[in-house]
UniProtKB/TrEMBL annotation:
Keyword tags: FAD, Flavoprotein, Oxidoreductase
GO molecular function, one term: FAD binding
Family: Belongs to the ETF-QO/FixC family.
FAD-binding domain residues: 5-193
Matching Pfam families: ETF-QO_FixC_C, FAD_binding_3
Cofactor: FAD
Function of the protein: Part of an electron transfer system.
Cleavable signal peptide: none
Name of the protein in question: Protein FixC
Protein backbone atom coordinates (compact mmCIF):
# COMPACT_ATOMS: atom_id res chain seq x y z
CA UNK A 1 0.00 0.00 0.00
CA UNK A 2 2.55 2.68 -0.83
CA UNK A 3 0.65 4.24 -3.71
CA UNK A 4 -0.21 7.90 -3.90
CA UNK A 5 -3.80 9.09 -4.41
CA UNK A 6 -5.26 12.51 -5.03
CA UNK A 7 -7.57 12.10 -2.05
CA UNK A 8 -7.82 9.71 0.89
CA UNK A 9 -11.17 9.70 2.70
CA UNK A 10 -11.23 8.19 6.19
CA UNK A 11 -14.66 6.75 7.03
CA UNK A 12 -17.62 5.54 4.97
CA UNK A 13 -20.56 7.23 6.68
CA UNK A 14 -22.64 9.85 4.82
CA UNK A 15 -19.90 12.51 4.97
CA UNK A 16 -17.14 10.19 3.77
CA UNK A 17 -19.30 8.70 1.04
CA UNK A 18 -20.36 12.14 -0.18
CA UNK A 19 -16.72 13.27 -0.30
CA UNK A 20 -15.41 10.09 -1.97
CA UNK A 21 -18.25 10.01 -4.51
CA UNK A 22 -17.89 13.69 -5.48
CA UNK A 23 -14.12 13.51 -5.85
CA UNK A 24 -14.14 10.20 -7.76
CA UNK A 25 -16.94 11.34 -10.06
CA UNK A 26 -14.81 14.37 -11.00
CA UNK A 27 -11.98 12.03 -12.03
CA UNK A 28 -9.70 12.29 -8.99
CA UNK A 29 -8.03 9.11 -7.74
CA UNK A 30 -9.68 8.32 -4.42
CA UNK A 31 -8.97 5.81 -1.68
CA UNK A 32 -11.63 5.43 1.01
CA UNK A 33 -10.78 3.52 4.17
CA UNK A 34 -13.46 2.20 6.57
CA UNK A 35 -12.78 0.28 9.76
CA UNK A 36 -16.16 -1.53 9.76
CA UNK A 37 -16.74 -4.90 8.14
CA UNK A 38 -18.79 -3.02 5.53
CA UNK A 39 -19.96 0.62 5.23
CA UNK A 40 -22.80 1.12 7.70
CA UNK A 41 -21.86 -1.76 9.99
CA UNK A 42 -20.65 0.67 12.66
CA UNK A 43 -23.10 3.50 12.09
CA UNK A 44 -26.10 4.67 14.06
CA UNK A 45 -28.82 7.10 13.05
CA UNK A 46 -32.54 7.61 13.83
CA UNK A 47 -32.91 7.79 10.86
CA UNK A 48 -34.39 10.54 8.77
CA UNK A 49 -32.79 11.16 5.41
CA UNK A 50 -33.14 14.71 4.07
CA UNK A 51 -33.41 14.32 0.31
CA UNK A 52 -32.05 17.70 -0.68
CA UNK A 53 -28.47 17.08 0.44
CA UNK A 54 -28.28 13.73 -1.35
CA UNK A 55 -30.03 15.08 -4.46
CA UNK A 56 -27.16 17.50 -4.96
CA UNK A 57 -24.74 14.57 -5.07
CA UNK A 58 -26.79 11.81 -6.74
CA UNK A 59 -29.83 13.48 -8.36
CA UNK A 60 -31.54 10.18 -9.30
CA UNK A 61 -30.95 8.46 -5.93
CA UNK A 62 -34.65 7.60 -5.59
CA UNK A 63 -34.32 5.02 -8.38
CA UNK A 64 -32.47 2.46 -6.30
CA UNK A 65 -31.66 3.79 -2.80
CA UNK A 66 -33.10 1.67 0.03
CA UNK A 67 -35.73 4.09 1.37
CA UNK A 68 -38.29 3.06 3.99
CA UNK A 69 -41.18 5.57 4.05
CA UNK A 70 -41.55 9.17 2.90
CA UNK A 71 -42.62 11.35 5.81
CA UNK A 72 -46.01 13.01 5.58
CA UNK A 73 -46.52 13.94 9.21
CA UNK A 74 -44.34 15.47 11.91
CA UNK A 75 -45.47 15.44 15.53
CA UNK A 76 -43.88 17.39 18.35
CA UNK A 77 -44.82 16.31 21.86
CA UNK A 78 -44.14 17.99 25.20
CA UNK A 79 -44.56 15.31 27.83
CA UNK A 80 -45.12 15.10 31.55
CA UNK A 81 -45.33 11.77 33.40
CA UNK A 82 -48.68 10.66 31.98
CA UNK A 83 -49.71 13.00 29.16
CA UNK A 84 -48.46 15.15 26.31
CA UNK A 85 -49.37 18.41 24.65
CA UNK A 86 -48.49 18.24 21.00
CA UNK A 87 -48.61 19.64 17.54
CA UNK A 88 -49.03 17.56 14.41
CA UNK A 89 -48.15 18.87 11.00
CA UNK A 90 -49.48 16.68 8.21
CA UNK A 91 -49.65 17.82 4.63
CA UNK A 92 -50.67 16.26 1.37
CA UNK A 93 -47.87 18.31 -0.17
CA UNK A 94 -45.51 15.75 1.37
CA UNK A 95 -47.32 13.08 -0.64
CA UNK A 96 -46.34 14.61 -3.95
CA UNK A 97 -43.10 13.34 -5.46
CA UNK A 98 -40.26 14.11 -5.33
CA UNK A 99 -40.51 13.52 -1.59
CA UNK A 100 -38.49 15.66 0.77
CA UNK A 101 -37.74 13.37 3.74
CA UNK A 102 -37.55 9.61 4.18
CA UNK A 103 -36.91 7.17 6.96
CA UNK A 104 -33.99 4.85 6.25
CA UNK A 105 -32.09 2.01 7.88
CA UNK A 106 -28.49 3.19 7.98
CA UNK A 107 -26.80 -0.19 7.52
CA UNK A 108 -28.65 -0.66 4.20
CA UNK A 109 -28.36 2.96 3.13
CA UNK A 110 -24.60 3.23 3.75
CA UNK A 111 -24.01 0.00 1.80
CA UNK A 112 -25.98 1.40 -1.13
CA UNK A 113 -24.14 4.75 -0.99
CA UNK A 114 -20.84 2.90 -0.92
CA UNK A 115 -21.78 0.92 -4.03
CA UNK A 116 -22.24 4.29 -5.80
CA UNK A 117 -18.82 5.43 -4.54
CA UNK A 118 -17.25 2.31 -6.08
CA UNK A 119 -19.18 2.81 -9.34
CA UNK A 120 -17.79 6.37 -9.48
CA UNK A 121 -14.30 4.87 -9.46
CA UNK A 122 -13.05 5.12 -5.87
CA UNK A 123 -11.12 2.29 -4.25
CA UNK A 124 -12.95 1.36 -1.03
CA UNK A 125 -11.17 -0.72 1.58
CA UNK A 126 -13.09 -2.00 4.63
CA UNK A 127 -11.99 -3.71 7.84
CA UNK A 128 -9.06 -1.32 7.96
CA UNK A 129 -8.49 1.29 10.64
CA UNK A 130 -6.50 4.43 10.01
CA UNK A 131 -4.21 4.77 13.02
CA UNK A 132 -2.65 8.15 12.35
CA UNK A 133 -1.96 10.82 9.80
CA UNK A 134 1.43 10.96 8.08
CA UNK A 135 3.05 14.37 8.25
CA UNK A 136 5.81 16.07 6.35
CA UNK A 137 6.46 19.04 8.64
CA UNK A 138 3.06 20.66 9.02
CA UNK A 139 1.67 19.11 5.82
CA UNK A 140 -0.55 16.00 5.96
CA UNK A 141 0.78 13.67 3.27
CA UNK A 142 -1.10 10.44 3.93
CA UNK A 143 -2.27 7.94 6.54
CA UNK A 144 -1.00 4.88 8.35
CA UNK A 145 -3.41 1.93 8.57
CA UNK A 146 -3.44 -1.14 10.78
CA UNK A 147 -2.19 -3.32 7.96
CA UNK A 148 1.30 -4.48 7.22
CA UNK A 149 3.01 -1.85 5.11
CA UNK A 150 -0.09 0.24 5.62
CA UNK A 151 1.28 3.67 4.70
CA UNK A 152 -0.67 5.39 1.92
CA UNK A 153 -0.04 8.84 0.52
CA UNK A 154 -2.32 11.52 -0.90
CA UNK A 155 -2.41 15.22 -1.72
CA UNK A 156 -5.41 15.66 0.59
CA UNK A 157 -6.82 13.61 3.47
CA UNK A 158 -10.50 14.13 4.27
CA UNK A 159 -11.33 13.21 7.85
CA UNK A 160 -14.84 11.73 7.87
CA UNK A 161 -14.23 9.47 10.84
CA UNK A 162 -17.26 10.45 12.93
CA UNK A 163 -17.86 12.02 16.30
CA UNK A 164 -14.86 10.56 18.17
CA UNK A 165 -12.50 11.89 15.52
CA UNK A 166 -9.45 10.32 17.12
CA UNK A 167 -7.26 11.13 14.13
CA UNK A 168 -7.87 14.87 14.29
CA UNK A 169 -7.31 14.83 18.06
CA UNK A 170 -4.08 12.84 17.75
CA UNK A 171 -2.85 15.30 15.13
CA UNK A 172 -3.77 18.22 17.41
CA UNK A 173 -6.35 19.65 14.97
CA UNK A 174 -8.90 19.77 17.74
CA UNK A 175 -9.02 19.14 21.47
CA UNK A 176 -10.50 16.36 23.58
CA UNK A 177 -14.27 15.78 23.35
CA UNK A 178 -16.05 17.79 26.05
CA UNK A 179 -18.92 15.98 27.82
CA UNK A 180 -20.95 19.20 27.48
CA UNK A 181 -20.59 19.12 23.69
CA UNK A 182 -21.89 15.61 22.96
CA UNK A 183 -25.15 13.80 23.57
CA UNK A 184 -25.28 10.10 24.33
CA UNK A 185 -28.20 8.54 22.46
CA UNK A 186 -29.65 5.05 22.65
CA UNK A 187 -32.08 3.61 20.17
CA UNK A 188 -33.98 0.44 19.39
CA UNK A 189 -35.55 -0.98 16.27
CA UNK A 190 -38.79 -2.84 16.99
CA UNK A 191 -40.26 -5.01 14.26
CA UNK A 192 -44.01 -5.17 13.74
CA UNK A 193 -46.29 -5.96 10.79
CA UNK A 194 -46.64 -3.24 8.17
CA UNK A 195 -50.46 -3.21 8.55
CA UNK A 196 -50.14 -2.61 12.32
CA UNK A 197 -47.88 0.39 11.76
CA UNK A 198 -50.20 1.82 9.12
CA UNK A 199 -53.29 1.39 11.33
CA UNK A 200 -51.65 2.85 14.44
CA UNK A 201 -50.29 5.92 12.68
CA UNK A 202 -53.14 6.44 10.24
CA UNK A 203 -50.92 6.15 7.18
CA UNK A 204 -50.96 4.30 3.88
CA UNK A 205 -48.28 2.14 2.31
CA UNK A 206 -44.96 4.02 2.03
CA UNK A 207 -46.22 7.01 4.09
CA UNK A 208 -44.40 7.72 7.34
CA UNK A 209 -44.76 9.65 10.61
CA UNK A 210 -42.08 11.00 12.90
CA UNK A 211 -42.56 12.04 16.51
CA UNK A 212 -40.08 14.26 18.34
CA UNK A 213 -40.49 14.44 22.12
CA UNK A 214 -39.17 16.41 25.03
CA UNK A 215 -40.06 16.98 28.65
CA UNK A 216 -40.14 14.68 31.65
CA UNK A 217 -38.91 11.67 29.63
CA UNK A 218 -35.32 12.91 30.02
CA UNK A 219 -35.43 13.02 33.82
CA UNK A 220 -34.48 16.69 34.00
CA UNK A 221 -31.55 16.33 31.61
CA UNK A 222 -31.08 18.28 28.38
CA UNK A 223 -32.26 15.92 25.67
CA UNK A 224 -35.02 14.67 23.42
CA UNK A 225 -36.72 11.45 22.36
CA UNK A 226 -37.85 10.30 18.94
CA UNK A 227 -40.00 7.70 17.23
CA UNK A 228 -39.89 7.04 13.48
CA UNK A 229 -41.92 4.66 11.33
CA UNK A 230 -40.08 2.40 8.89
CA UNK A 231 -41.71 -0.10 6.51
CA UNK A 232 -42.10 -2.92 8.99
CA UNK A 233 -40.35 -1.57 12.05
CA UNK A 234 -40.35 1.38 14.41
CA UNK A 235 -37.17 3.13 15.48
CA UNK A 236 -37.26 4.90 18.80
CA UNK A 237 -34.63 6.40 20.99
CA UNK A 238 -33.63 9.07 23.45
CA UNK A 239 -30.49 11.11 23.92
CA UNK A 240 -29.17 13.52 26.56
CA UNK A 241 -25.99 15.49 27.01
CA UNK A 242 -23.18 13.28 28.27
CA UNK A 243 -22.33 15.85 30.96
CA UNK A 244 -25.92 15.62 32.25
CA UNK A 245 -25.68 11.82 32.53
CA UNK A 246 -22.51 12.33 34.58
CA UNK A 247 -24.06 14.96 36.84
CA UNK A 248 -27.62 13.62 37.09
CA UNK A 249 -28.40 13.12 40.81
CA UNK A 250 -30.62 10.12 40.01
CA UNK A 251 -27.76 8.50 38.07
CA UNK A 252 -30.23 7.52 35.37
CA UNK A 253 -28.67 5.27 32.73
CA UNK A 254 -29.49 5.74 29.02
CA UNK A 255 -31.07 2.27 29.04
CA UNK A 256 -33.40 3.20 31.95
CA UNK A 257 -34.38 6.38 30.15
CA UNK A 258 -35.35 4.49 27.01
CA UNK A 259 -37.35 1.91 28.99
CA UNK A 260 -39.15 4.75 30.78
CA UNK A 261 -39.97 6.41 27.47
CA UNK A 262 -41.29 3.13 26.05
CA UNK A 263 -43.54 2.73 29.09
CA UNK A 264 -45.01 6.25 28.81
CA UNK A 265 -48.79 5.92 28.33
CA UNK A 266 -48.62 7.93 25.08
CA UNK A 267 -45.81 5.83 23.61
CA UNK A 268 -46.57 2.31 24.89
CA UNK A 269 -49.69 1.67 22.73
CA UNK A 270 -47.81 2.70 19.58
CA UNK A 271 -45.07 0.13 20.08
CA UNK A 272 -47.03 -2.66 21.81
CA UNK A 273 -46.11 -6.11 20.44
CA UNK A 274 -42.95 -4.82 18.72
CA UNK A 275 -40.14 -7.34 18.60
CA UNK A 276 -36.74 -5.85 19.45
CA UNK A 277 -34.21 -6.44 16.66
CA UNK A 278 -31.49 -3.94 17.36
CA UNK A 279 -30.25 -1.88 20.30
CA UNK A 280 -27.36 0.54 20.07
CA UNK A 281 -25.79 3.60 21.63
CA UNK A 282 -23.84 6.37 19.96
CA UNK A 283 -22.56 9.88 20.62
CA UNK A 284 -23.94 12.90 18.73
CA UNK A 285 -21.89 16.12 18.51
CA UNK A 286 -24.29 18.76 19.83
CA UNK A 287 -21.94 21.56 20.84
CA UNK A 288 -23.13 23.61 17.86
CA UNK A 289 -21.46 26.64 16.31
CA UNK A 290 -18.88 27.34 19.01
CA UNK A 291 -17.73 23.71 19.11
CA UNK A 292 -16.84 23.52 15.40
CA UNK A 293 -13.03 23.17 15.22
CA UNK A 294 -10.68 24.47 12.56
CA UNK A 295 -11.95 22.66 9.49
CA UNK A 296 -8.99 22.67 7.14
CA UNK A 297 -5.22 22.98 7.07
CA UNK A 298 -2.24 21.90 5.02
CA UNK A 299 -3.40 18.79 3.18
CA UNK A 300 -6.45 18.04 5.34
CA UNK A 301 -10.14 18.86 5.79
CA UNK A 302 -12.69 17.74 8.39
CA UNK A 303 -16.29 16.86 7.48
CA UNK A 304 -19.48 15.53 9.11
CA UNK A 305 -19.67 14.53 12.78
CA UNK A 306 -15.90 14.69 12.99
CA UNK A 307 -16.22 18.48 12.62
CA UNK A 308 -19.25 18.71 14.94
CA UNK A 309 -21.64 19.53 12.09
CA UNK A 310 -25.01 18.66 13.65
CA UNK A 311 -28.05 20.89 13.99
CA UNK A 312 -29.48 19.50 17.24
CA UNK A 313 -32.55 21.75 17.22
CA UNK A 314 -33.85 20.27 13.98
CA UNK A 315 -32.22 16.86 14.48
CA UNK A 316 -30.29 17.23 11.24
CA UNK A 317 -26.93 15.49 10.97
CA UNK A 318 -26.73 13.31 7.88
CA UNK A 319 -27.56 16.23 5.56
CA UNK A 320 -24.87 18.40 7.12
CA UNK A 321 -22.51 15.42 6.85
CA UNK A 322 -23.24 14.93 3.14
CA UNK A 323 -23.06 18.66 2.40
CA UNK A 324 -19.73 19.15 4.19
CA UNK A 325 -18.37 16.02 2.47
CA UNK A 326 -19.41 17.34 -0.93
CA UNK A 327 -18.00 20.82 -0.27
CA UNK A 328 -14.67 19.43 0.93
CA UNK A 329 -14.39 17.26 -2.19
CA UNK A 330 -15.19 20.28 -4.37
CA UNK A 331 -12.38 22.22 -2.68
CA UNK A 332 -9.97 19.34 -3.40
CA UNK A 333 -11.13 19.23 -7.03
CA UNK A 334 -10.60 22.99 -7.39
CA UNK A 335 -7.13 22.82 -5.79
CA UNK A 336 -6.12 19.99 -8.12
CA UNK A 337 -7.35 21.97 -11.14
CA UNK A 338 -5.50 25.10 -10.03
CA UNK A 339 -2.26 23.11 -9.70
CA UNK A 340 -0.84 25.32 -6.95
CA UNK A 341 -0.62 22.71 -4.21
CA UNK A 342 -2.75 21.65 -1.28
CA UNK A 343 -1.77 23.98 1.55
CA UNK A 344 -4.42 25.56 3.79
CA UNK A 345 -4.57 28.52 1.41
CA UNK A 346 -5.53 26.33 -1.55
CA UNK A 347 -8.15 24.48 0.53
CA UNK A 348 -9.64 27.66 2.03
CA UNK A 349 -12.48 27.52 -0.51
CA UNK A 350 -13.93 24.71 1.67
CA UNK A 351 -14.27 27.04 4.67
CA UNK A 352 -15.68 29.78 2.45
CA UNK A 353 -18.27 27.45 0.89
CA UNK A 354 -19.21 26.17 4.36
CA UNK A 355 -19.75 29.70 5.66
CA UNK A 356 -21.97 30.50 2.71
CA UNK A 357 -24.02 27.30 3.05
CA UNK A 358 -27.02 26.51 5.27
CA UNK A 359 -24.65 24.45 7.44
CA UNK A 360 -22.84 27.33 9.14
CA UNK A 361 -25.79 29.73 8.79
CA UNK A 362 -28.05 27.34 10.75
CA UNK A 363 -25.38 26.54 13.35
CA UNK A 364 -24.82 30.26 13.79
CA UNK A 365 -28.55 30.92 14.17
CA UNK A 366 -28.74 28.46 17.08
CA UNK A 367 -25.31 29.32 18.49
CA UNK A 368 -26.62 30.07 22.01
CA UNK A 369 -29.03 27.15 22.18
CA UNK A 370 -26.70 24.56 23.78
CA UNK A 371 -25.71 26.93 26.59
CA UNK A 372 -29.24 28.23 27.22
CA UNK A 373 -30.78 24.78 27.54
CA UNK A 374 -27.86 23.34 29.43
CA UNK A 375 -28.11 25.97 32.13
CA UNK A 376 -31.90 26.01 32.38
CA UNK A 377 -33.32 22.57 33.01
CA UNK A 378 -36.74 24.11 33.81
CA UNK A 379 -37.38 23.83 30.06
CA UNK A 380 -37.25 20.04 30.43
CA UNK A 381 -39.00 19.77 33.81
CA UNK A 382 -41.12 22.65 35.09
CA UNK A 383 -42.55 23.93 31.81
CA UNK A 384 -43.62 20.58 30.33
CA UNK A 385 -45.42 19.87 33.62
CA UNK A 386 -47.10 23.31 33.71
CA UNK A 387 -48.15 23.15 30.06
CA UNK A 388 -49.69 19.70 30.52
CA UNK A 389 -51.43 20.80 33.74
CA UNK A 390 -52.85 23.85 31.96
CA UNK A 391 -54.15 21.76 29.05
CA UNK A 392 -55.68 19.21 31.43
CA UNK A 393 -57.38 21.95 33.43
CA UNK A 394 -58.87 23.78 30.43
CA UNK A 395 -60.02 20.62 28.65
CA UNK A 396 -61.54 18.86 31.68
CA UNK A 397 -65.21 19.83 32.07
CA UNK A 398 -65.88 19.80 35.81
CA UNK A 399 -68.24 22.65 36.61
CA UNK A 400 -65.42 25.12 37.37
CA UNK A 401 -65.71 28.26 35.24
CA UNK A 402 -62.94 29.03 32.74
CA UNK A 403 -61.93 32.36 34.33
CA UNK A 404 -61.20 30.57 37.62
CA UNK A 405 -59.22 27.94 35.72
CA UNK A 406 -57.18 30.63 33.97
CA UNK A 407 -56.38 32.22 37.33
CA UNK A 408 -55.33 28.85 38.73
CA UNK A 409 -53.08 28.18 35.71
CA UNK A 410 -51.47 31.59 36.04
CA UNK A 411 -50.98 31.06 39.77
CA UNK A 412 -49.35 27.65 39.10
CA UNK A 413 -46.91 29.32 36.72
CA UNK A 414 -46.22 32.04 39.33
CA UNK A 415 -45.67 29.43 42.08
CA UNK A 416 -43.09 27.64 39.94
CA UNK A 417 -41.41 30.69 38.37
CA UNK A 418 -41.45 34.29 39.57
CA UNK A 419 -42.59 36.98 37.13
CA UNK A 420 -38.98 37.93 36.50
CA UNK A 421 -38.18 34.22 36.09
CA UNK A 422 -40.92 33.88 33.46
CA UNK A 423 -39.78 37.00 31.61
CA UNK A 424 -36.15 35.84 31.82
CA UNK A 425 -37.08 32.42 30.41
CA UNK A 426 -38.94 34.03 27.51
CA UNK A 427 -35.81 36.07 26.77
CA UNK A 428 -33.62 32.96 26.98
CA UNK A 429 -35.89 31.14 24.52
CA UNK A 430 -35.67 34.07 22.16
CA UNK A 431 -31.87 33.98 22.48
CA UNK A 432 -31.74 30.24 21.80
CA UNK A 433 -33.92 30.36 18.69
CA UNK A 434 -33.35 33.83 17.25
P1 LIG B 1 -20.48 8.39 10.82
O1 LIG B 1 -21.78 8.12 10.21
O2 LIG B 1 -20.29 8.24 12.25
O3 LIG B 1 -19.35 7.67 9.98
C1 LIG B 1 -18.00 7.65 10.39
C2 LIG B 1 -17.36 6.43 9.78
O4 LIG B 1 -15.96 6.47 9.99
C3 LIG B 1 -17.87 5.13 10.40
O5 LIG B 1 -18.25 4.26 9.39
C4 LIG B 1 -16.65 4.60 11.16
O6 LIG B 1 -16.61 3.20 11.22
C5 LIG B 1 -15.50 5.18 10.35
N1 LIG B 1 -14.25 5.37 11.08
C6 LIG B 1 -14.07 5.99 12.27
N2 LIG B 1 -12.79 6.00 12.62
C7 LIG B 1 -12.13 5.38 11.63
C8 LIG B 1 -10.74 5.09 11.40
N3 LIG B 1 -9.80 5.49 12.28
N4 LIG B 1 -10.39 4.41 10.30
C9 LIG B 1 -11.34 4.01 9.40
N5 LIG B 1 -12.66 4.28 9.55
C10 LIG B 1 -13.04 4.96 10.64
N6 LIG B 1 -29.06 12.61 11.49
C11 LIG B 1 -30.06 12.84 10.62
O7 LIG B 1 -29.84 13.51 9.59
N7 LIG B 1 -31.32 12.36 10.84
C12 LIG B 1 -31.61 11.61 11.94
O8 LIG B 1 -32.74 11.14 12.08
C13 LIG B 1 -30.59 11.35 12.87
N8 LIG B 1 -30.84 10.61 13.96
C14 LIG B 1 -29.81 10.23 14.76
C15 LIG B 1 -30.08 9.38 15.82
C16 LIG B 1 -29.06 8.91 16.62
C17 LIG B 1 -29.36 7.96 17.74
C18 LIG B 1 -27.73 9.32 16.34
C19 LIG B 1 -26.57 8.79 17.16
C20 LIG B 1 -27.45 10.21 15.31
C21 LIG B 1 -28.49 10.68 14.51
N9 LIG B 1 -28.26 11.55 13.44
C22 LIG B 1 -29.29 11.86 12.59
C23 LIG B 1 -26.92 12.11 13.16
C24 LIG B 1 -26.24 11.34 12.03
O9 LIG B 1 -26.28 9.97 12.29
C25 LIG B 1 -24.79 11.79 11.89
O10 LIG B 1 -24.72 13.19 11.82
C26 LIG B 1 -24.13 11.19 10.64
O11 LIG B 1 -24.13 9.80 10.70
C27 LIG B 1 -22.70 11.69 10.50
O12 LIG B 1 -22.10 11.08 9.41
P2 LIG B 1 -20.53 10.93 9.33
O13 LIG B 1 -20.23 10.28 8.03
O14 LIG B 1 -19.88 12.23 9.61
O15 LIG B 1 -20.13 9.98 10.56
Amino acid sequence: MSEKFDVIVVGAGPSGNAAAYTAAKAGLSVLQIERGEYPGSKNVQGAILYANALEQIIPDFREDAPLERHIIEQRMWVLDEESFVGTHFRSDDYNKPPYNRYTIIRAQFDKWFSSKVKEAGALVICETTVECLLMDGDQVVGVRCDRQGGEVFADVVILADGVNSTLARKAGFHGEIQAGNVALAVKEILFMPQETIEARFNIKEEEGVVIEMFGKITDGMMGTGFLYTNKDSITLGVGCMLSDFKENPNRTSPYTLLEKMKAHPSVAPLIAGGEMKEYCAHLIPEGGFYAVPKVHGNGWMIVGDSGGFVNAVHREGSNLAMTTGRLAAEAAIAAKAAGKGFKAKQLASYKQALDESFVMKDLHKYRDMPQVFHQNNQFFTTYPELINQAARSMITVDGIDKKTKEKEIFSNFRKSRSLTGLAGDALKLWRAFR
